[in-house]
Amino acid sequence: MPRIRVDHDECVSSGACVLEEPDLFAYQDGPEALAVALPAAQALPRERMEELAELCPVSAIVVEDDGDPA
Ligand code: SF4
Asked: Which of 5, 10, 13, 65 has CB atoms 3.0–4.6 Å from 33's, for a disulfide?
């Protein structure tokens, strides 16, 4: 199963994902406005996840397979 997540070492809080897809991404609570992928995003086909990853200007949105440490 593919999984989509935001790499918080890379996210620069540009907001592109949150603005473009507010049902799929949100800022997490806390002092830093780091984005997180919402549960609805996990139900999408891998192809759609790959498209979402393209939204991020710094490639912080990553798609990976469960059990794949990369
Ligand atoms: S588009 Fe990328 S850098 Fe901007 S908030 Fe989303 S994950 Fe972070």
From this structure: 13
